[in-house]
Amino acid sequence: MRTTIFDIAKEANVSIATVSKVINNTGRISEKTRKKVLEVIEKHNYTPNLLATALTSKYSYTLGLMMPNLANPFFGEIAKSVEDRARELGFSVIMCSTEYDAEKEAWYFTLLQKKRVDGVIIISGVENEDAILGQKARAGMPIALVARDIPTLPINTVCVDDFLGGYMAARHLLQLGHRNMGMILENIRAARERLRGFRKALEEEGLTLEDRYVAEGEATIENGKLFAHRLLDKKPSPTAIFATNDILAIGVIRAANERNLKVPDDLSVVGFDNTILATITDPPLTTIAQPMSLMGSTIVDLLVQEIKGEETNKQRIILVPELVLRGSTKEPRQVAQQEGSLAQPSFSGG
Amino acid sequence: MRTTIFDIAKEANVSIATVSKVINNTGRISEKTRKKVLEVIEKHNYTPNLLATALTSKYSYTLGLMMPNLANPFFGEIAKSVEDRARELGFSVIMCSTEYDAEKEAWYFTLLQKKRVDGVIIISGVENEDAILGQKARAGMPIALVARDIPTLPINTVCVDDFLGGYMAARHLLQLGHRNMGMILENIRAARERLRGFRKALEEEGLTLEDRYVAEGEATIENGKLFAHRLLDKKPSPTAIFATNDILAIGVIRAANERNLKVPDDLSVVGFDNTILATITDPPLTTIAQPMSLMGSTIVDLLVQEIKGEETNKQRIILVPELVLRGSTKEPRQVAQQEGSLAQPSFSGG
DNA sequence: CTGAAAGCGCTAACAT
DNA sequence: ATGTTAGCGCTTTCAG
Q1: Cβ within 8 Å, pair B70-A92
Q2: Which residue in B has a C-alpha nearest to residue A137's C-alpha?
Q3: Strand ranges in chain A using DSSP code E only, listed in sequence order
Q4: pLDDT tens digits along B5-23
Q5: Using CA atoms, how far apart are residues A233 and A230, in angstroms rounded to an integer?
Q6: pLDDT above 70 covers what percent of chain B?
Q7: Cβ contact B277–A281 (<8 Å)
Q8: The dihedral of CA A287, A288, A292, A293: what is its sign?
Q9: DSSP bridge partners of A240
Q10: What's the Rg (C-alpha) of chain B?
Q11: A235 C-beta less than 7 Å away from strand C
Q12: At the fourth CATH level, which superfamily is domain A162-287+324-338?
């Protein structure tokens, strides 16, 4: 049998209450007995059973972290910072890889409830509002969202301004002189916001992004390549492609290589996220950066506040994305040849 | 108050023992009462408290996963497959990012013990044998190691043959005709094994790898670059560099770029791991692949076997690494010019 | 086939 | 300053 608080109490000639108090630094204990108890604990290498503690007290000091795929660097970065901040605040985190599967998400959520985690953080993921985010399903479990904004739900949220991110990508390409662009998006809501922002910027210039220049699907390099080929087959062929994450953007670069199109000379590519991947592609990827680390730590702070009841008002923190210029974007061929004559007019407009 | 097994029992007009039995499918319950109980459970959206279950029964069905850094794709891949296999077997996993910090490792290990996880998996990490791996410190907690072999310890282990991996890297470069090489290694034991294997292959050809052509440090792109510059400054300058992981290898490629050396024409680079990073560098990286996914799932199987007491004999599973040829290696300049005259002799020997 | 009761290891009033 | 005691929510004999 493992040694319990009872064994310690007996050997130290005190009650279990006393032992509990020295362990948790609660109540008033004389220096002498505290020392004695500590000694016995040390001697037996006693480790309190936190399961029992959790059963009795209010908190399990455990958080759940649900994300689509741990092996994806974007989620990895956030997960790392979540774990780190959680540890600082005394919480451990159970990780749940949901593979973009709504059923798995729901199943995991139930499991986390059974394990009595104090709260759960959801990174991105499928559109599964009713199953786990609905008031009823949650059953009072604190939930916080990162990189997945659902404006209609009163839930703590941290994400970037996706609309603005898309807008920025388009502005950048427009300023370079691109007029004919394509876009590849992941099949999640945030990506559609980016599409809206992208379109908005184009419309401000009197341009429209036709649906045939838009492709949507799961975020894999393969898909990025496939979709890029599809877009590049259109006439007229786009001179720039905006992908809603770095993975898809890498696929675009691959497609360009396969067609002997040079990036950025023949095709400009803009990604999203600014994961480590963006720094090592050839050429390195111009991308819209999300502050992943900040997002992770912030969401933990918000969630823990809610758990501790310190702050009952829910917050939606919208961070500003940032355009990171690297080597995958450039003015389009025609413009370069014509000294930017086409691009000029739009600048005068503001 | 949350609804408990007691509430269910009362409403279903049975004892809590009966409810427990239908939940766990144990004992013999009439179809009628089972149905009734299930109904009430459903109605109240009751979720059993697994903390209480764990307190009573033998298992918490939770595993700990300690790794240096979640944001590193190599660990991410393994973590993902660990999580996946664990879920299949009914276990959840608590993740612990230790940042190559021995103290943090020890601290986390204690925490996991307190949370009464059924076992812990350690991926790579610092050399911290006594603190957490020593018989005494473990206190009976099942432990399993991935990507970190400690031959002297009776612990379930899954890793690749690092010596062979290093040997293979060297063989490849030798066959291409390289005679003057450098090596950059991470400061972990596995990397040193790779160094040994690398040296062995060289020695078989009558060559030696001088210490001044070897650099060691933490695995960051920055370090890879720094060390590569250092090695390339030596006279004679190496025509190939073997780095013990993809991250360092990327740094090497960067250094080459900074010096206007073309990879692979002026410098060949071999990495290790075969993470996603290796596929997107420019040029894509020739690397020694570790079967990350297999390693993750296998270690979970081993650990769970030990936990369940099905298999008390510890196993050390040594997987064979694989040379993945991509674009970062090529015969050295002199050899190319001389039609491989230097490389020929070594082939005849077998 | 079902129920009563004794824990699992700990916390938190409430006494002393 | 320390001890008593009643749970926390569940599993598991052991009776019936």
Answers
A1: no
A2: B45
A3: 62-67, 92-97, 119-123, 143-146, 156-160, 181-186, 214-217, 240-243, 268-273, 286-289, 316-319, 322-324
A4: 999 999 999 999 999 999 9
A5: 5
A6: 94
A7: no
A8: positive
A9: A181, A268
A10: 26
A11: no
A12: Response regulator (3.40.50.2300)
- Inter-axis angle of helices A5-12 and A31-44, nearest 10: 120
- Using alpha carbons only, give the angle A69, A74, A80 rounded to the nearest 5 degrees: 85
Q: For residue range B267-318, list pLDDT tens digits in order.
A: 999 999 999 999 999 899 999 999 999 999 999 999 999 999 887 899 999 9
Q: In this model, does residue B349 exceed pLDDT 70?
A: no
The closest alpha carbon to A192, from A278, A255, A282, A127, belongs to: A127
For residues B105 and B127, is the Cβ–Cβ distance under 8 A? no
- Phi, psi for residue A152 in degrees, rounded to 5: -85, -5
As a whole-number percent, the residues of chain A with pLDDT over 70 amount to 94
B-contacting residues of A 121-180, CB under 8 Å?
Answer: 136, 139
Q: Exposed, middle or buried, B345 (CB in 10 Å: 0-12/13-18/19+)?
A: exposed
Nearest to A51 among B51, B70, B95 (CB): B51
Residue A94: C-alpha distances to residues A65, A79, A298, B201 (Å): 6, 11, 18, 44
Angle at A228 between CA A224 and CA A234, to 5 degrees: 155
Q: State which CATH number among 3.30.40.10, 3.50.50.60, 1.10.260.40, 3.10.350.10 fits the domain covering B5-48.
A: 1.10.260.40
Residue ranges, CATH 1.10.260.40, chain B: 5-48
Q: What are residue B186's DSSP bridge partners?
A: B217
d(CA B212, CA B230): 9
Dist. CA A182–CA A231, nearest whole Å: 7
Nucleic chain D contacts, protein chain B, residues 31-90, CB cut-off 7 A: 48-49, 52-53, 55-58
> Which residues of chain B are in CATH 3.40.50.2300 domains?
62-161+292-320, 162-287+324-338
Nearest 10 degrees: Cα torsion A306, A308, A312, A313? -40
Contacts of A71 in chain B (CB under 8 A): 73, 76-77, 79-80, 276
Cβ–Cβ < 8 Å for B146, B299: yes
pLDDT in tens, B162-182: 999 999 999 999 999 999 999
pTM of the predicted structure, to 2 decimals: 0.91
For residue A286, which of A243, A226, A320 has the smallest C-alpha distance? A243
Task: Domain B62-161+292-320: give its CATH architecture.
Answer: 3-Layer(aba) Sandwich (3.40)
- Between A179-188, A304-313, A321-330, B296-305, the lowest mean confidence (pLDDT) is in A304-313
Which strand (E) or helix (H) includes residue A80? Answer: helix A73-88
Place of tokens 């936990």: B307
Name the token pair of B93: 């996993």
Chain C positions under 7 Å from a protein CB?
A: 1-5, 7-13
